[in-house]
Design a protein that fits this description.
With 260 residues, the protein is of the alpha/beta class. It is built from 4 helices and 8 strands. Among the domains are: 131 residues, 2-Layer Sandwich (Beta Polymerase, domain 2), CATH 3.30.460.80; 30 residues, no CATH class. The protein is flat and about 120 Å long.
Length: 260
């Protein structure tokens, strides 16, 4: 068995410039390694066969810092919440078919002359062809008991072929019922007067003529009722420029440049 390796205290340092004696390497005895004074020797450990000899260690190096993980890109900001979808507008009321003995009788008598019979928000109305309008109005007065003509008016739809709706609002005192009768006419088309059926139609038709320019054939004295006779245009037509007054009339009669 080889001898135990001796620790560093048994090794004497060599004088400066001295050479270590050469020794023949023996398989039973490991070759001694000369140590310099500056070399740091670690004691050998273990007594077993084949124990390794002490070796000088290098000067301690500063610890290399562990590589840090690459900085991760900042997470993208959370997307702004999408605005809530605008709720669809609620649908408004729509006309409903109006079925009654009156409507059935009118359809049997006038056929296609009754264009529509509907109920809208509890209000009943008929749309009739202008060719049968006088007959239907007289029947409403004499046979159906609608003895009062509440109003006659019109509505202008410039983009429509039949630009005007002429509307008759009728009331029955005996039945306490109200019905509207409408007819559609083109611009420039005349309508038969209803003065012979209801006397109140006299002033109502004059107002429609004044504001819309609709002519009622057979009227006893169709002329303006609100505006001067020499006024130009009809203010309730939708193509009438409300900012453009009759400057000539205003200047002559009021002595000013504009009525605005």
């Amino acid at each position: 068995m080889p001898e135990e390796s001796k620790g560093p205290e048994s090794v004497s340092p060599l004088p400066e410039g001295a050479k270590a004696p050469s020794e023949t390497a023996s398989p039973d005895k490991p070759q001694a390694v000369p140590l310099t004074p500056s070399a740091e020797v670690k004691p050998l450990t273990g007594t077993a066969s084949g124990a390794s000899e002490a070796k000088p260690t290098e000067a301690a190096k500063p610890a290399t810092p562990a590589p840090t993980a690459a900085a991760k890109p900042a997470a993208p900001a959370a997307a702004a919440p999408k605005p809530a979808a605008t709720p669809a507008k609620p649908t408004g009321p729509v006309p409903e078919p109006w079925e009654s003995e009156l409507v059935t009788g009118l359809k049997q008598q006038y056929g296609s002359g009754i264009l529509e019979a509907s109920r809208y928000l509890g209000q009943r109305y008929l749309i009739v062809d202008s060719s049968v309008l006088p007959e239907i109005l007289r029947r409403m007065r004499e046979e159906e008991g609608f003895d009062y003509c509440v109003d006659i008016t019109a509505v202008h739809y410039p983009k429509r072929e039949h630009q005007f709706d002429v509307v008759y609002v009728l009331y029955s005192f005996a039945k306490n019922e109200r019905i509207r009768v409408k007819t559609r006419i083109k611009d420039g088309e005349h309508v038969p007067s209803a003065v012979s059926i209801w006397a109140t139609a006299n002033w109502l038709e004059r107002e429609v003529f004044d504001m819309f320019g609709i002519v009622f054939d057979g009227h006893p004295g169709l002329k303006r009722i609100l505006l001067p006779e020499d006024w130009h245009g009809h203010p309730l037509r939708k193509d009438y420029d409300i900012l453009q007054q009759d400057k000539e009339w205003v200047h002559i009669n009021l002595g000013i440049e504009s009525g605005q």
